[in-house]
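>> received
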Amino acid sequence: MKSDIIRNLTDTFEGHAQQTDGGIEYWLARDLQHLLGYTKWDNFLNVVSKAKTACEVSGHEVADHFADVGKMVDLGSGSQREIPDIMLTRYACYLIAQNGDPSKSQIAFAQTYFAIQTRRAELIEQRVLEAERVSARKKLTNTEKELSGVIFEQTGGNQDFALIRSKGDQALFGKTTRAMKAQWKVPSGRPLADFAPTIILKAKDFATEITIHNAREKGMRSEAAISKEHVTNNQAVRDTLINRGIRPESLPAAEDLKKVERRIESDKKKSNKNPDSLEA
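>> returned
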């Protein structure tokens, strides 16, 4: 029964959504007033006032979420007059619901509705970040394969690849690969990169791309030359990160990438079966 009411509220609330010429989504306070069960405008304005205070306290610009406008209404005589209204963003509607009278069923259900929407947004953001990390890991894998190929082409063998990568890790982290694996508690036999946060994956990839480019452009024919180039590039990337307040060796390990990939795949299957599964 409650889910039916929430669904009805969702349809009704979303049905009142409007857009500006610039495509910005908004709702009118007079419409929201009735949706949330307030018969008197002045009583509803008290709730709006509390919501504005909450908006300000949260560090947002009130004017960005609550914009005073006028609204034309029909009079009994067939004429019209303008009454004050407020354009509200979705965030403003959320704050109004949070500051409304919870004894009103509409407010109680609106709070639940926005809790669902907030959770949905959090899950979407989490999945976007996870997908970005998976993509960065795949990109690094391909770039390292390319470097291995360059080493084989230019030195006559790729047995030196692991050594060159290890030297790169030493330059990037200021620690050996083994030390970082121990710090991040990487299981035996698993690559360090599977537990690296996205920014480290991209940093390693960037340094490796530079090594590939310069190894080819400068015709490097020995492990020593390519190693020196790779160390220099990783050191440069490390310096950049440190200058921006990021110490690679101080970052915590990220979740096992294999678990992330399994979760993404599982979520895809669930979404195909049930489009609303994101709210679970």
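>> The first strand starts at residue 18 and ends at 19.
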